[in-house]
Amino acid sequence: MYRCPYCKRLFKTFFGVKIHVGRVHLVMRCLACGVMVPNLKRHIYEQALKRNEAHMVLLALIPHTTKCWRYEKNRKLLEECTEKAMEVCKVNGGGGGLSGARSRGSRP
User: What is the dihedral of CA 94, 75, 45, 106, to 10 degrees?
Assistant: First the structure.
């Protein structure tokens, strides 16, 4: 048995503790909206499903494992998000950035 050093919850495997710590105790700030969330990839994915532009772009830009994109609906979402990200990031002839997205370290 293995115990989480932060909340003392017990797990059968060390890997279980690693997954738990990543999901429960590592809270991260979303670059798209600034909210603090325990599972950043899930938050980004759920917001992208709602067609939130800033989250769609972020979803396209973060690294993924191929396993989660084997389902048709997920692949279509990722393709749509990638098109949006390419449009937003393009420098020549378009791409004015994101409206309402949080910018980090940008200067006026």
Answer: -20
